[in-house]
Amino acid sequence: MKEKIMAAAILLFSKYGYKKTTVEDIAGALQMTKGSIYRYFANKEDLYHQAVSQLLDDWRKFVQKSIAADTQPLEKLLHMAEVAIHYPETNPDFCAIVLADPAIFSLSPGKDHYRAANRPAEELLHAVLNEGVAAGVFRDLNIEYTTELLYSIYMMHLIKIYGNGEGQRGFEVYMNGIDLLLNGLKK
Length: 187
Description:
This protein has a single domain (52-183), classed as Tetracycline Repressor, domain 2. 72% of the residues lie in helices and 0% in strands. The protein is built from nine helices and no strands. The longest helix is centred in the N-terminal third of the chain and has 24 residues, at 44-67. The chain is elongated. InterPro entries: Homeodomain-like_sf, HTH-type_TetR-like_transc_reg, HTH_TetR, Tet_transcr_reg_TetR-rel_C_sf. Keywords: DNA-binding. It comes from bioreactor metagenome.
């Protein structure tokens, strides 16, 4: 039932926004009482947070599944960068929520309201970098710092593309930046 409530909430939050959507609206969409919602969630904010966290977790799982067949670390990193940046397009409800609430994406781990949901995505990136260093494909560098840098660049472009609506140009700048990071400026 909790998943059904979150699914209904996501639809309504995407259509009307967080402020205009009420717990009564969500309960009505499911033909249940408002009190039934409170069996699973403390309040509307808790429901919103858990629903968005679930969307972020689904996103990470999708990326992880997408790169599972990639055997080379460089191929895996490039594929991951592309799949991850385009994923929101596959979920219009999530896109609508992000456009209304760009604070879902944060450049500062200390201010990230979804840190617990975002941390596994960083860990996935960390694992790919670790794999590349171990295979001798990537330089032996500080993987913690590199993960933080790459994840920050990724988050910045998510904000630009989905939060600020930069669209195709934002994608192109992002992929060009990934190419620059991997291949450098040297000719």
